[in-house]
């Protein structure tokens, strides 16, 4: 009887210990579950904030692009009457067409020196790669102006300038050893070649800067008005 009671007490004690351990584990797991739910909620809130920020950034980008387009178009209108308006994205006395700046014909130089002069302005010799640029240059009535076409070893027949628009001959190489080569120039609607050491006028072209929004959209209000 005594042995049986002792074993029963031991079993009860073991049961209490196991129950206590199970309770502690259950409590810990519940706490972990609450923490996991809190983490997921925090993660969800962060995701919502990120999405909101992305939407705001996208709206700001669209607004910025819209303002830039408005400023550019307004500057083009101002440029029609004020060639040197402060909004113009080209250097002073350079012409502005689409997204490119064009220098006015300068004094006569050899083809090589002309290319070097243009490079010093972060530009290159005149290239005509589209109908729009062709119409623009022809409207300016430029004649005897070097073109940025690659020099050749042999003479070539003259041709219409528009035939060179989609040519792969637009200059991309170096300007060394041109004494025995022929370079191209344009006379309004035609392209001719001549020795590269001959002196002709030259034009440069380069990518226009972005129109500054503040220089176009900000209107100076005279003092004393309101």
Name of the CATH architecture of the largest domain:
Roll
Distance between the termini: 109 Å
> What Rg do the Cα atoms give?
38 Å
Q: Mean of the pLDDT scores?
A: 81
Q: Could you name the CATH topology of the largest domain?
A: Mannose-Binding Protein A, Chain A
Short synopsis of the structure:
The chain has 226 residues and is α+β, with helices and mostly antiparallel strands. It is 46% helix and 14% strand. It contains four helices and nine strands.
List the helices and strands and how they pair.
Elements: H1 2-81, E1 95-97, E2 100-102, H2 111-120, E3 124-125, H3 131-139, E4 143-146, E5 159-160, E6 182-187, E7 190-195, E8 201-202, E9 204-207, H4 213-217
Tell me about this structure.
There is one protein chain. The protein has 226 residues and is of the alpha+beta class. It has two domains: 1-86; 95-207, Mannose-Binding Protein A, subunit A (Mannose-Binding Protein A, Chain A). The protein is built from four helices and nine strands. The chain has helices at 2-81, 111-120, 131-139, 213-217, and strands spanning 95-97, 100-102, 124-125, 143-146, 159-160, 182-187, 190-195, 201-202, 204-207. The strands form two sheets. The protein has a five-stranded mixed beta sheet, with no helix packed on it. The model is unreliable at 219-226 (pLDDT under 50).
